[in-house]
Amino acid sequence: MNAFNDLMAFQKDTEALAQVAGRLGWDQETVMPAGAAPQRGEEMAAMEKVLHARRIDPKIADWLAAIDVQALDAVGQAQVREIRRSYERTSKIPADLAAEIARVTSMSQGIWAKARAAEDVAAFLPALEEVVRLKREEGQALAQGGDVYDAILDDYEPEMTAQRLAEIFDAMRPRLVDLRAKVLDAKAPRALTGLYPEKAQLDVSNRLAKAFGYGFDNGRIDKAVHPFSSGSGLDVRITTRVSTDDPFNCFYSTIHEVGHACYEQAIDNAYLLTPLGRGVSMGVHESQSRIYENQLGRSRAFTGWLFDLMRDSFDEFDVSSEEEFYATVNRVNKGYIRTEADEIQYNLHVMLRFDLERALMSGDLAVADLEAAWNDRFAADFGYAVDKPSNGVLQDVHWSVGLFGYFPTYALGNVYAGCLHEALRKDVPNLDMQLRDGNTSAATGWLREKLQQHGALRAPQETIALASGMEPGPEPMLSYLEKKFSEIYDI
């Protein structure tokens, strides 16, 4: 056991340093002065050099060779599995390349933000060209002759392949397109109108976070251009954003990020600062954020409680009934923004990005042609043209920071959430009675027990299968969507 104990002690320091690096990223997106970007890029590169060196330290190989894995319990075996995977993977990436990616993506993020604000795609393309070049080089190093996109996808969804994702998406697309066509041909519920002051929105946002079990002793909510969750263990922070004419943007961004954060906060503290002390994959992570946001937060029962809260919080709120409010919350709109999309169209936004970034990584699509390719695909998929870059190719932060392979996990998270929701409803048949009172504890407690507390103990697909009692697939999600929106739109 000495080799195992020494390995875990070494790994604890590595995990702690990774949390510090993550805090630098949180600071950059929330409170860092804009002029600090060049220095922050150097700081991030320096941290990445330290982390990369630790992750490929030759002592790790010696410890792994000395450990009798069969003598360990299931948790110990999982810890060794994750450390071995990280060591073997990181060892394929040159240290200079890892540091350069950290430096360039830190700088690129600021360039993207300015280009987005100025609606200036040309100002961003040189930085994106460099990011794509570096990420392709990283993928080639990891793939070692195999599929480059599969290699980088493994960072976010281990054991998943682009081919399997394409099969899942191909099964989803026809039914989603058909449902969307029927809904858009039907009479739409009323849209929310009026202005909703920022302070009141943030007050409601805090109420929502508490209602879903977010622990403020170990977390905080700040504002950011693109909402996100950061950290794990005892320090898990989230951000939201405010639009005075669209409070749902704030509220459901908050609930979404709370889903991520509650997953991290619920992981067994015995796994703190170990490889098991974080979400097992981004697909599983998105299953938590999406089930919190949609199946729970947009349910008829919970929106009944939110309806009363909004009437108490906003003077100009003029929706007349709970049922009308439920329909308004779930209104299917023509729009451009993935994060604001309804449940039907959200996955179509993700599929667009999945296909484009695969083409970028393979070299079939040049960065210079990306905007035109985006606009053409959007018009084909959604039936109308992109009106400005911030509603098109500049809307997401992900590519600027090198997160290629991340996008498909959003749709995969919806698939996983569909499976979990079906099982949850069977196990908690009176769930709606509690949600109507703003009480999510039965649902969040079920998710905590079945999935969240285990962290990265099991592989992603196994995690979902054991929690839901079924092999993951898109049918539960598609059936849920068809039933819900057929009722709302009377189709």
UniProtKB/TrEMBL annotation:
The keyword rRNA processing does not apply. One of its GO terms (biological process) is proteolysis. GO terms for molecular function: metal ion binding; metallocarboxypeptidase activity. Zn(2+) binds at H256, H260, E286. It comes from the Bacteria. Its cofactor is Zn(2+). Binds 1 zinc ion per subunit. The active site is at E257 (proton donor/acceptor). Its EC number is 3.4.17.19. It holds the Pfam family Peptidase_M32. InterPro entries: Peptidase_M32_Taq (IPR001333). It catalyses: Release of a C-terminal amino acid with broad specificity, except for -Pro. CDD domains: M32_Taq. Keywords: Carboxypeptidase, Hydrolase, Metal-binding, Metalloprotease, Protease, Zinc. Broad specificity carboxypetidase that releases amino acids sequentially from the C-terminus, including neutral, aromatic, polar and basic residues. Belongs to the peptidase M32 family. This is Metal-dependent carboxypeptidase. It comes from Cognatishimia maritima.
